[in-house]
Design goal:
The chain has 243 residues and is of the alpha/beta class. The protein has eight helices and eleven strands. It folds into two domains: 118 residues, Rossmann fold; 99 residues, Winged helix-like DNA-binding domain superfamily/Winged helix DNA-binding domain (Arc Repressor Mutant, subunit A, Orthogonal Bundle). It is 36% helix and 21% strand. The strands form three sheets. The protein has a five-stranded parallel β-sheet, sandwiched between helices. It has a four-stranded antiparallel β-sheet with strand order 6-7-8-9, with no helix packed on it. The protein has a two-stranded antiparallel sheet with strand order 10-11. Helix 2 runs parallel beside helix 3. The protein is globular and about 50 Å long.
Length: 243
């Protein structure tokens, strides 16, 4: 896919808005142009995937219900070629299944319709800010005797079986690893990993769903976790050695 990850200060950040409802699409384009972004759009799934594969966008805002390919198919195809591409999915407000499926396919976050435009802009800014930062820490993670993770290359092994990770999953693991002496509240993860301002009142299950995804990959019994444990009333903690 060849996305240019070396965004510099001499060019505007580029956003691809994928939305088939004209009123919403036009409004989003206008809002992000007003905030200084270079904005392109697509109103159909095949066109959206073709544009996304060009690697020219710093962020993709991706609606789920589209003619041609739906948002799930587009997200899956993007992640098969580029695990780094920031993606925020636009979902129906009441559909937990849409949220879970979108994040399971590798979206960085979701925004439920109807949404606050001001909050959407802040969340796009936060994901872009995090995607351009560099983590200066160990790129290898070992859990117990049977799980090894190459954080830099987004892959690992559990009992010699291959694992793959999204960039966001790795960032969650990196943050929990660097604070493994204590439980980390979900609000802290939203602030430090997703880059959301602590003062924003964000209703999102993003953290919980990412933890559940990681447990399915890492835990022998996800419902009885040994490595990614929940400390009631305090947050999540990464246990490096569960023996």
């Amino acid at each position: 896919m060849g996305r240019n990850t070396c965004a510099t200060m001499d060019r505007k950040l580029r956003i691809l808005v994928v939305e088939d409802e004209e009123a919403i699409r036009t409004g989003l384009v206008d809002v992000f142009v007003f905030h200084g972004y270079d904005v392109d759009f697509a109103d159909e799934g095949h066109e959206a995937l073709r544009k996304a594969r060009s690697g020219q966008y710093d962020m993709i805002l991706l609606d789920i219900m589209l003619p041609g390919l739906d948002g799930y198919d587009i997200c899956r195809h993007i992640r098969e070629e580029d695990k780094e591409q920031p993606i925020i999915m636009l979902t129906a407000k009441s559909s937990d299944e849409e949220i879970i499926q979108g994040l399971a396919l590798g979206a960085d976050d979701y925004v439920a319709k109807p949404f606050s435009v001001a909050q959407l802009v802040l969340r796009v800014q936060a994901v872009l800010r995090r995607s351009r930062s560099v983590w200066e820490q160990n790129h290898q993670l070992q859990l117990g005797d049977n799980i090894s993770i190459d954080l830099e290359n987004l892959k690992g092994q559990r009992d010699e079986k291959p694992l793959t990770f999204t960039r966001r999953e790795v960032e969650v693991l990196q943050y929990l690893q660097s604070h493994c002496d204590r439980p980390v509240p979900r609000e802290e993860l939203l602030n430090k990993v997703w880059g959301y301002d602590r003062q924003l009142e964000i209703e999102t299950r993003t953290v919980d769903i990412h933890i559940a995804k990681l447990r399915r990959k890492l835990e022998p019994t996800p419902k009885a976790p040994r490595y990614l444990i929940t400390v009631r009333g305090a947050g999540y903690r990464l246990v490096m050695d569960s023996a």
